[in-house]
């Protein structure tokens, strides 16, 4: 696609006459041309918004991951990395989410690191519950196992282990079922 616009205002004006998929194509084309940092961040955030509205969470996470380093403050970078991780978790890409969380942890002080760790547990819990309630047992199993690997209070671990026992049983994972039952 031919891109003549070089600043945010021109790009916003051109976007008004396009549908979502054409916007995605156009904004992706904009990234291939030299634009200033503010405009590039705008384009990346607009792409994330479009991808998220279309439930293309992995691509939305990639846009947030690319937008994070453009920020001028560590706080803003940290928030963008956490948002990227959230998108990756929704996409089921837990490895990419862990990378984004590690980058966020690198930007934060001790108090912010605690917040990031709580956010990570919250996002994984929410996604595991979503998988479980929508009948995606194998995906729920993976998310709950991931949650169990975090440093959680004993009561939360017990709840997750109980859920895992039921999932192991329903999925026919007998060895894992008995191993977990032995540990509990």
How does this structure look, described?
By secondary structure, the chain is mostly helical. It has 2 domains: 54 residues, no CATH class; 129 residues, Alpha Horseshoe (Serine Threonine Protein Phosphatase 5, Tetratricopeptide repeat). 78% of the residues lie in helices and 0% in strands. The chain contains 10 helices and no strands. It starts with 7 loop residues before the first helix and ends with a helix. The relative contact order is 0.07. The mean pLDDT is 92.
Gist?
The protein is mostly helical and 184 residues long. Helices cover 78% and strands 0% of the residues. It has two domains: 1-54, no CATH class; 55-183, Serine Threonine Protein Phosphatase 5, Tetratricopeptide repeat (Alpha Horseshoe).
Topology:
Blueprint: H1 8-15, H2 20-31, H3 37-53, H4 57-67, H5 74-91, H6 94-107, H7 110-133, H8 137-148, H9 154-171, H10 174-183
- Output the number of helix runs: 10
Count of individual domains: 2
Q: Any idea of the CATH class of the largest domain?
A: Mainly Alpha
**Poorly predicted tracts of residues:** none
What's the gyration radius in Å? Answer: 20 Å
CATH architecture of the largest domain: Alpha Horseshoe
Quaternary: single chain
Q: What series of H and E elements makes up the topology? A: HHHHHHHHHH
Provide the structure class.
mainly alpha
End-to-end separation in angstroms reads 59 Å
Arithmetic mean pLDDT: 92
User: In total, how many beta strands?
Assistant: 0
What is the helix fraction of residues, given as a range? over 70%
- Sheet-strand content, in percent, reads under 5%
The backbone outline, from C-alpha atoms, is elongated
The CATH topology of the largest domain? Serine Threonine Protein Phosphatase 5, Tetratricopeptide repeat
Characterize the main sheet: none
């Amino acid at each position: 696609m031919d891109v003549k616009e070089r600043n945010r205002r021109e790009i916003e004006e051109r976007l008004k006459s396009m549908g979502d998929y054409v916007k995605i194509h156009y904004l992706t084309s904009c990234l291939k041309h030299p634009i200033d940092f503010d405009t590039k961040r705008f384009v990346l955030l607009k792409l994330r918004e479009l991808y998220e509205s279309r439930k293309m969470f992995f691509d939305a996470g990639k846009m947030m991951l690319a937008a994070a380093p453009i920020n001028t403050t560590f706080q803003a970078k940290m928030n963008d990395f956490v948002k990227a991780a959230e998108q990756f978790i929704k996409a089921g890409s837990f490895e990419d989410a862990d990378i984004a969380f590690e980058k966020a942890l690198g930007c934060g002080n001790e108090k912010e690191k605690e917040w990031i760790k709580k956010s990570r547990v919250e996002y994984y819990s929410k996604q595991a519950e979503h998988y479980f309630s929508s009948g995606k047992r194998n995906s729920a199993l993976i998310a709950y196992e991931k949650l169990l690997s975090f440093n959680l209070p004993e009561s939360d671990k017990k709840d997750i282990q109980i859920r895992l026992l039921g999932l192991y049983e329903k999925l026919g994972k007998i060895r894992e079922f008995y191993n977990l039952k032995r540990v509990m």
